[in-house]
Sequence to fold (184 residues):
Amino acid sequence: MGLLDTLLSGENEQLINQLAQNVGLDSADLQNVIGKVAPALSQGVKQNMSSGNGLGDLLNMMNSGGAQSYLEHPEKLADPEAVEEGNAVLGQVLGSKEVSRNVASQAAEATGVDSDVIKKLLPMLATTVMGVLGNKTQGLQGGDLGAMLNGGGGSPMDLISSFLDADNDGEVTDDLMDMAKKLF
Fold:
């Protein structure tokens, strides 16, 4: 199941409704925005996974527990701590505020939702993505990193890769190329 499918699945209905309420959108508009920004977040996660330092930082963010707690208590996603965590995730995943602004601008053009609303949403969504990924990789410790990087079957890397595989063809590269085309 890809990132978009996981975020929009029925099990996350309360989360989607809370995100929509936090930024003043209805659920349909929020889902449309998520559909436009999820590829950029997925691509950023994948790029970080290919870098030793980036991967370690992502694993720390995923396993810190903070992001996962927001999945259970989505009403806290608008709290300053959650937004701060989300901004840290965006910095790690997207690389800079400028890229984040570009993602918001492109999503605004595609959806008709004001870019300021999307900029407010992005940190909450980034925290949510880390929470979902954290749930999928729960229990991964630093010592498991080598096994994960060696591609053992059923590893957290496999789970994350399947999470990023938007078209469920078993190959992430084509999905990343499609995501890149949307960004540029």
User: Anything to note?
Assistant: Residues 27-49 form the longest helix (23 residues). Residues 140-156 have pLDDT under 50 and may be disordered. The chain has one domain: 3-183.
